[in-house]
Known about the structure:
Blueprint (H helix, E strand, L loop, with lengths): L7 H11 L3 H10 L4 H18 L7 E8 L5 E9 L2 H4 L2 H17 L4 H6 L1 E2 L2 E2 H12 L4 E9 L2 E7 L4 E7 L6 H15 L11 H17 L4 H19 L5 E2 L2 E5 H8 L5 E8 L3
Antiparallel strand pairs: 1-2, 2-5, 3-4, 6-7, 7-10, 8-9
Helix pairs in contact: 1-2, 2-3, 3-7, 9-10
Amino acid sequence: MSTVQISASDVNKLRQQTGAGMMDCKKALTETNGDFEAAIDFLRKKGAKVAASRQDRESNEGVVIARTSADGKRGVIIELNCETDFVAKNAEFVAFANAIANEAVENAPASIEELGQLQIEGVSIAEAIVDRTGKIGEKIGVSKYEVVDGEKVIAYIHGNFRLGVLVALSANVAGADEAGKDVAMQIAAMNPVALDKDGVDSTTIERELEIAKEQIRAEGKPEDMVEKIAAGKLNKFYKDSTLLNQEFVKDPSKNVAQFLSTVEKGLTVTAFKRVALGA
């Protein structure tokens, strides 16, 4: 046992040098009698080396967490990855992901990098991730982070943390929670590319038109009909692939926009995000 007094400043100095967690740094200094170089070696052997050596490993498993703020006006989705399904199903790993999501929804950082600087368990999220990489023995990290703000935001998690959806509605009205969940389930199932046709980027439109034209020509249609038929196919694409124009899964006699109008006249979706694990 070390007879050297380990000060908080020494622990903090080693943390800054190595990126390791506070308790790990304290243990390393204690075990090595306060010798910084030996403590760094100790950390590398016990964890930091594991973290460094796994940066090139695939981490396609994990969990997707969707969460809303207490006032229901903000939602976040984070994807926390690991290497194996075994770790992804571990309750402690899921709890860690939920803790990260809680910090994200409270602080709304602008990027994954800023998210990593938020504090959790007395250290930054980035440091906590390095700590767990060493302890678990798998590469872990946040690969996706999305934020949605609105008058009423609903979060939905599908398939045992495999997919998360956020939906922002234009108003917080009676029935908004249930309607928002229905729309979130629609997004999970149908994966729309945009809110409506105005939200479809020009590259996608050009690609869809080119595909349509090639199909029409392959069918032997006259060239003077190609543009008109292609425009019709593009409208079909908007109907199938943009959220408000899609047939409502729970009632195909209506599209999503019409369904929302039955909840409250003028109610609509102002934004949405969909994150699927590994996608």
